[in-house]
Design a protein that fits this description.
Elements: H1 2-41, H2 57-82, H3 86-112, H4 123-133, H5 137-165, H6 169-198, H7 204-222, H8 233-243
Helix pairs in contact: 2-3, 2-4, 2-5, 3-6, 5-6
C-alpha cells in the first residue's frame, strides 16, 4: 500500500510540473511588456512622456530659438538708443515687438514639453551685445545691421528646416507659423543694408547732406564757382574778362 501511495504521489508531481512551468512563463510575459513600457515605448502616467529628450534635434532647435529671440529683443532695444538712422531705429523696434511675441509663444510651448528655457543671454550673444553697446551713430548702424543680416540668414534657414522636417508636431507647427515673420525681417534688413552701403538712406543729417550734394555739384559745374549758378552775369563776366581784360585796350 505504501508503495502504491508513493508511486501515485510521484505521478501527480510529474504531471503538475509542466503546468507550473507554463504558469511561470506566462507570468514572465507581463514583466517583459512592462519593461518595454518603461523604456518609453508607451505613454507613462502623469504626462511624463511629454518631456522632450535633451538630445533630440527639436530640443536643440527650441533652445537655440529661445537664445536667438532674446538676443533680437536686447539688440533691438540697443538700436533704439544708439542708432542714428531712422530706418535702423524702426527696424530695431520691430525686432522688439515681433520677437517678444514669438518668445512668449515659445515659452508657453516649452512648458508643455517640460523644457526649461534660458533666462539670460549666453556668452556668444552677450559678447555681441557688449560690442555693439560701445558703438553709436553711423558706426552702430553699420555694425548692427551687419549682425542682423547674418542672424536672419541663419534663422530663416533653421526655421525652414524645422518647419519641414521637425520631429515634434507642435514645435514644427510653431516654426512654420513664425517663419513668414522672419522672412519679412530678412527682406527688410537686406534693403536697409543696401541703403547704408550706397549712402542713399540715412537719418535727418544724412538725408539733408544727400539732398544738398546734387545741387552743389550742379552749381560748381555750371557757374565757375559763382554762388548763383545758371545766372548770365557769372559766365558773361568771366567771358568778357578773358577776351578783353582792359576794356578797350589790346592785351598785346
Amino acid at each position: 500500500m505504501n508503495k502504491i501511495m508513493v508511486y501515485g504521489i510521484a505521478v501527480l508531481t510529474l504531471g503538475a510540473a509542466p503546468v507550473t512551468a507554463q504558469t511561470g512563463s506566462t507570468a514572465g510575459q507581463p514583466a517583459t511588456t512592462t519593461g518595454q513600457a518603461g523604456n518609453g515605448q508607451t505613454t507613462r502616467p502623469g504626462g511624463a512622456s511629454a518631456s522632450m529628450r535633451t538630445s533630440s534635434p527639436d530640443h536643440a532647435f527650441v533652445m537655440e530659438a529661445a537664445q536667438g529671440g532674446m538676443a533680437e529683443v536686447a539688440l533691438g532695444r540697443l538700436a533704439g538708443e544708439k542708432a542714428s538712422n531712422d530706418r535702423v531705429k524702426q527696424f530695431g523696434q520691430r525686432m522688439v515687438d515681433d520677437h517678444s511675441k514669438a518668445n512668449d509663444e515659445l515659452k508657453a510651448l516649452a512648458q508643455t514639453k517640460n523644457i526649461s528655457l534660458p533666462t539670460a543671454l549666453d556668452a556668444k550673444h552677450k559678447a555681441t551685445e557688449d560690442r555693439l553697446s560701445k558703438l553709436s551713430g553711423a558706426a552702430f548702424d553699420r555694425a548692427y545691421i551687419q549682425e542682423m543680416v547674418a542672424d536672419h540668414k541663419k534663422d530663416v534657414a533653421d526655421f525652414q528646416k524645422e518647419s519641414k522636417s521637425g520631429g515634434d508636431s507642435e514645435v514644427k507647427a510653431w516654426a512654420a507659423k513664425t517663419l513668414p515673420t522672419l522672412e519679412e525681417h530678412n527682406k527688410m534688413v537686406q534693403e536697409i543694408s543696401a541703403s547704408l552701403r550706397s549712402g542713399s538712406v540715412g537719418t535727418s543729417g544724412t538725408q539733408s547732406k544727400g539732398t544738398s550734394s546734387p545741387g552743389t555739384a550742379a552749381g560748381s559745374g555750371s557757374g565757375s564757382g559763382t554762388p548763383t549758378p545758371g545766372s548770365s552775369s557769372g559766365p558773361a563776366t568771366s567771358g568778357s574778362t578773358g577776351s578783353n581784360p582792359n576794356g578797350t585796350n589790346n592785351p598785346r
